[in-house]
Amino acid sequence: MAEQFSFEQIVASANDVIIVTKAQPIDDPGPEIVYVNAAFTRLTGYTAEEALGKTPRILQGPKTDPETRQRIRDALAHGLPVHVEILNYSKTGGEYWLDLNIVPLRDAAGRITHFAAIERDLTQRKRQEEELFALATTDVLTGIHNRGYFLERARTEFTRAARLGRPLAVVTFDIDWFKTVNDTHGHEAGDKVLVRMVATARTVLRQIDILGRVGGEEFALALPEAQMPEAIAVAERLRAAIARTPINLGTKSLTVTASFGVAERRAGDSAIEALMARADRALYAAKAAGRNTVRSQVGAA
Predict the structure, then answer these.
(1) In this structure, are 161 and 122 located in the same domain?
(2) Among 3, 158, 184, 268, which residue's beta carbon has the most beta carbons within 10 A?
(3) Is 38 part of a structural domain of the chain?
(4) What are 58-82's pLDDT values in tens digits?
C-alpha cells in the first residue's frame, strides 16, 4: 500500500519560513497573507492569527532596501519568480536577514492565484560577513578605516572626480612628538590620544568625508567636492580643535598638536597616490615649519 502523507504537515513543520499570499493587489496595501507556517511565528514573533489578512509588508522597515522591494514588486507584477536577500523586521523591531524565494501558484486554468514565499534565515551568516568585513576594513583601535580600505574608498572618489571633472582634496596629518608622548606617558596614553583625536575629527568633518588611519600616528582625509581653500579650512579647523582638546589620562590631562599637509586633484593626476604624495610633502613642510600648522602643496608634482 502506498504511504499516506500530507504536504500540509510537511510544510507546517519545515524549518524554513513559508508564507502564501493572494496574488492581488500588487500595489498598496499589498497581497493578503492566507497561510504561514510555524517557522514564520518563531522567526517573526507574529502569531498566525496576527499575520493572516495582513500583507508581508508589515515585516519591512526603515533599512529594508528600496531597490530590493522594487525588484520583488516588478517580478510579482509580471507573474515571475524572484530570488533575493532582504532585511526584514520582527514584531518587536528586531532585524533579520532572509534568503527569499517567491514563486507564483497557478490554478487549473493556468491563472496566477497566489504567491508562495520560501524564506531561510540568513541573519547569523550576515553578521559573520559583517564582522569579517569590519576586521578587514577597520582600524581596531580607533574604529575608522584602516589604510587599505581608506585607499580603496579614496580611489573610488578619485575615479568619480576625474570622470565628472569634480574637485577632490586630500589631507594627511599626524600627531606632533607622538614618540615623546609614548615614551613619557606610556603606550596606553598614546592610544588614548589617537582615539580622542579621531573623536575630535568626527566633530569637524562632513558625512561624505573619508577618514583613515594610514600609519601609527598618521591619518589621511579624502574630501570629495573640496577645492584647496575649502580643504585648507577643514585642516585648520581640525588642527585648532585638536590643539584645544585635553586628553584625560586619569590623574592628569594632556594636550597635543598635529601637523597637516593638503593637496587637491589636478588634471594630469592619474591616481589618488599622486595627491597623497603631494599632501605628504606638504606635511613634511609643516613639520619643518615648526609643527602645529597646515601647509599645502602648490608647486609641481
Answers:
(1) no
(2) 158
(3) yes
(4) 999 999 999 999 999 999 999 999 9
